[in-house]
Design goal:
mainly alpha, 5 helices, 81% helix
Length: 226
């Protein structure tokens, strides 16, 4: 339900921003445009270059906004859980980017060229491939998609647990603890508010890290040499 709500709200915001777009942007349009330019310039063009970025900007932008929306639900009263704090959705995002990563590399270099570039790096003595190639295989075909999903879900779960602990402690100290301990409720409440603000930052940071790593992986897949 939280994911459905986040999706509807995100689509509504984007549709309204597009329909009401003006030459001189208002406050809401300006925020959306700043975020769009941030992904295009600071992620796609910075990592892939302007020429290659044009192809991947729409996908990277969509993934960034989607993850940001699903992350931020963890600090919205009444929702109180990030849509990405259950492993299924991070796996879906990771698989999407992984398929794009493989497709980009195979399309650019061909299957043989892609495997050669990634599994048999140039400039390495031949005997070293006995050790290096299995490591590269594990990195390319297992660790890259796995780390994308695990990093995202682990951060969202950790933040959710910290908030639960702080506000559960606040509830206990204020409503159930002995009078001498009730003052600790104020401490845990302030800590909960601080962690909430921190979680807003983490929500944006994790969306940024996800698309940055995705762009880096795509760039690695289309390069003929590493």
């Amino acid at each position: 339900m939280v994911r459905v709500i986040a999706t509807v709200l995100l689509l509504t915001i984007m549709v309204l921003a597009a329909r009401r777009a003006t030459l001189v942007p208002g406050r809401g349009q300006n925020v959306v445009e700043v975020l769009l330019d941030f992904v295009r310039v600071n992620v796609a063009e910075e990592i892939l270059g302007k020429k290659e970025a044009r192809r991947y900007v729409p996908l990277l932008t969509a993934v960034f906004f989607a993850i940001l929306a699903f992350n931020i639900t963890g600090v919205i009263p009444g929702l109180n859980i990030a849509g990405t704090s259950v492993i299924g959705l991070p796996i879906v995002f990771a698989l999407i980017m992984y398929v794009v990563y493989l497709h980009a590399g195979i399309q650019r270099q061909g299957l043989g060229g892609f495997l050669k570039t990634n599994l048999f790096p140039a400039g390495v003595p031949a005997p070293m491939y006995v050790l290096l190639t299995p490591i590269e295989f594990l990195t390319v075909f297992v660790l890259r998609p796995a780390t994308l999903a695990i990093r995202l879900v682990a951060n969202m779960i950790a933040g959710h647990l910290m908030l639960v602990l702080c506000f559960a402690a606040t509830n206990y100290f204020i409503l159930e603890a002995a009078p001498a301990l009730k003052a600790f409720g104020a401490v845990t409440f302030v800590a909960g508010l601080a962690i909430t603000l921190f979680e807003v930052f983490i929500a944006a940071l994790q969306a940024y890290i996800f698309v940055v790593l995705s762009a880096v992986y795509i760039n690695l897949s289309i390069e003929t040499e590493h």
